[in-house]
Amino acid sequence: MAEECIFCRIAGGQLPAEVVYQDEQVVAFKDIRPVAPVHILIIPRKHIPDLTAITPEDKELLGHIHLVAVQIARELGLAGRGFRLVNNCKEEGGQVVYHLHFHLLGGRQLRILG
Ligand code: DGP
Q1: Mutate which of 15, 30, 33, 99 for ligand 1 pocket (most atoms within 8 A of beta carbon)
Q2: Can you give the pLDDT at residue 60?
Q3: Which of 5, 12, 63, 107 sits CB 3.0–4.6 Å from 38 for a disulfide?
Q4: Cβ(97) to ligand 1 under 6 A?
Q5: What angle do CA 73, 81, 17 make, to 5 degrees?
Q6: Residue 46's beta-bridge partner residues?
Q7: pLDDT for the residue 71
Q8: 112 lines ligand 1 (CB under 6 A)
Q9: Which atom of ligand 1 lies nearest, measured to the CA of 34?
Q10: pTM: predicted TM-score of the whole model, two decimal places
Q11: Pair 97, 7: CB distance under 8 Å
């Protein structure tokens, strides 16, 4: 855990969040500034600053995050309609919080990125 990291603090229960799913590896909670009817952040409990910091050790974790994303999408009725799973990496990728996270977006027609 990184003491100053807000997502570590959410994962540890020291900061409140609307948690929709959690297990020993990941936590999923509603984004504080939603840009779609469904906007959930899926984070590993492990502090990984950004996507470039992943290692081969994280392969299983990254697969697990995707399985959790699909499970949540299914539970929210998005699996048939479609959704988007996004990672913003570093400054030009639009990353603001430096704890790896994936945005699960859906519930409306999403436009081309860019
Ligand atoms: P990114 O730009 O990919 O780093 O997105 C960070 C997202 O995190 C952004 O959509 C807003 C969200 N966020 C920031 N602080 C908090 C918080 O304290 N609680 C929750 N639920 N979301 C947060």
Answers
A1: 33
A2: 98
A3: 107
A4: yes
A5: 30
A6: none
A7: 98
A8: no
A9: 10
A10: 0.97
A11: yes
Which residues are marked as active site?
Answer: 101
CA dihedral of residues 92, 97, 98, 101 (deg, nearest 10)? -90
Structure tokens at 79: 């699996």
19 lines ligand 1 (CB under 6 A): no
Reference 87, options 70, 64, 58, 65; nearest CA is 65
Mean pLDDT for each 10-residue chunk of the chain (114 residues)?
90 97 98 98 98 98 98 98 98 98 98 82
Strands 38-44 and 19-22: unpaired
Q: Is 35 left (phi over 0), alpha (psi -120 to 50) or beta?
A: alpha
Q: Which residue has the tokens 């003491």?
A: 3
Residues 72/41, Cβ–Cβ less than 8 Å: no
d(CA 79, CA 16): 28
Going from the N-terminus, what domains does the chain have, and what CATH number goes with each? Answer: 6-106 (3.30.428.10)
- In angstroms, what is the span from residue 84 Cα to ligand 1's centroid? 16
